TrEMBL record:
NCBIfam families: selenium_SpcS
Name of the protein described by the UniProt record: O-phosphoseryl-tRNA(Sec) selenium transferase
Keyword Protein biosynthesis: yes
Lineage start: Eukaryota, Metazoa, Chordata, Craniata, Vertebrata
Entry keyword set: Cytoplasm, Protein biosynthesis, Pyridoxal phosphate, RNA-binding, Selenium, Transferase, tRNA-binding
GO cellular component: cytoplasm
Primary site of residence: cytoplasm
Chain segments carrying region Disordered: 462-485
Originating organism: Hemibagrus wyckioides
Amino acid sequence: MNEENFSVSEKLVSASYVRQGVQARRGHEQLIRTLLEQGKCPEEGWSESTIELFLNELAVMDSNNFLGNCGVGEREGRVASDLVARRHYRLIHGIGRSGDIAAVQPKAAGSSLLNKITNSVVLDVLRFSGVRSVSSCFVVPMATGMSLTLCFLTLRHRRPSARYILWPRIDQKSCFKSMVTAGFEPVVIENVLEGDELRTDLQAVEKKIEELGAENILCVHSTTSCFAPRVPDRLEELAVMCAKYSIPHIVNNAYGVQSSKCMHLIQQGARVGRIDAFVQSLDKNFMVPVGGAIIAGFDEDFIKEISKMYPGRASASPSLDVLITLLSLGARGYKKLLAERKELYTHLAQELKTLADRHGERLLNTPHNPISLAMSLDGLQANCDKAVTQLGSMLFTRQVSGARVVPLGAEQTVSGHTFRGFMSHSDAYPCPYLNAASAIGITKKDVELSIKRLDKCLKGLKKDTKGEKSESESSPSGPDDQTVP
Ligand SMILES: Cc1ncc(COP(=O)(O)O)c(C=O)c1O
């Protein structure tokens, strides 16, 4: 309500009560004003009522909610289901205009404001999470793979004759397909084995640049967050190489915002060399539904060029979800989640090590990977060839999600390219293994229950290979399962 309405209210309710109500409302409004002025993630999380007040204020600024509106266009923000309208806080017009996802829509001042504020808040989060010098970013309603494709398509205009993308191998299909879908030829650079870790082969990258010619290379496509025993690429060295040969550099930072190490690598790479854009998933870093990513970089013009590359308007849902999330967590809440994740990584590593020792296996030594861990399955494989894949299905039926079992020698063809040793980021990794990750939102209970079930499965498989009936197969829900919500 505005001043006028408040004073009219005083005819109905005692003036002192109304004044108290005015003051209360001012508290919410002050928070909204600070957000609009500073464009930063508030330090303390907002209450749901402040968030809803803000979103409702935005919604009434859009033409689909104008009381006297009559529309005769082909897109008037009409929604048949009230449930759908409420699900979107009546922000129906989406973001951008045909031809530019960052443009302001005359019909939708509220949605346009939402878009600008979200991009600004997300930029603040990228900065305080470690990439201090990032200058520009935008939320795009596509997941990581497609967002990488958009970056490659934008670079095509700058380097029309380039055909190749140099890509230190990471066995994740969307990463590979993001290049193929954009119409480029990925040049796979195999990783080198250093101890247990798979690391970027810098010499092989440089050799390829010289062999193919820098002008024929669209970019280097590197990766930070990845499954162990692969570790984040040597970003600084790659960035320096890209600067030396004037080759663009796109970084896949899929779930790297949650790790200060991944963010530091990007910051350092940009400081000493060249990084044109880095891409991160919204769901993997901010605990929102799948469907959005952030494209960020150090040169505002290039990031603007990418946003202009997006054809047409876009869904506002990913922006809305991440804005609501960050407003409710506040910077403090988000940093707390990051700190808890880091602590639980150490806990998970200790628990996996103890488990590995107990079963004659080894926690692979991958100190450069800050999120994902791997435990060897050598002993299991030695007992029985099929036991490794069996472990995968046992974990699945026991509702341990996210634990990946990587057998030896799997072959897979992705968009015409055959990968030997698929899933292991290497043609011939020395042992089969199991992955587990400490990702944002993980709880101590997740760690403890999954270790307990993993232990049970391993024991069961050992018995199986000795010809006894598997405990895990005979009783798929053991006592610990009773604690599953
Ligand atoms: C390193 C990496 N890059 C990219 C992706 C693909 O992400 P999206 O599904 O958001 O396209 C994943 C998904 O797991 C990933 O692990």
